[in-house]
Sequence to fold (174 residues):
Amino acid sequence: MTKMIDTALKPAMTIYREDQLFAPWVYLLLGMIALNLLFPQIPPLRNINEIRPSSDPATYVVISVIALITACMMKMTTDVVPDGINVSFGWLPIYHTRIRMDEIKIVEPVTYRPMIDTLGWGIRRSWKGETVLSARGNRAVRITRLNGSVLLIGSQKNDELAAAIESTRRALMI
Fold:
């Protein structure tokens, strides 16, 4: 089913594509929270036969919300296509943004400080007013638009992403 959704949402011609997951510790933390909610007796681990799932219905609501957040936000996909850049979050993408190639003024690979500049990863706004879309790491491509707004797109291969954007822009100028 997910492959069918990806195929339907994927543009006909992709020049560059990068799928990024968040750091493993994020998934581990969410899993530990869900496990602790599901089996509240685990911390003072007594007799293994005494451990029972929680009988509180709210526990299952919280676990469902954690699973939904993971499905809808915990993956970042960046596509460079002939007329623009598409960035989406989630296996079931609920956030999507598009930057047209003709809106771009400057493209540069950069290193930034996610915890200091934006207080983490995800869909953020930096202290400088830049929109930051990132899943992990400290590398990104800074895109300055003709209108002066700035967007940082997180990438594990920021040099390759910047080169793909630049070569696509150059091809459009000819």
User: Anything to note?
Assistant: The mean pLDDT is 84.
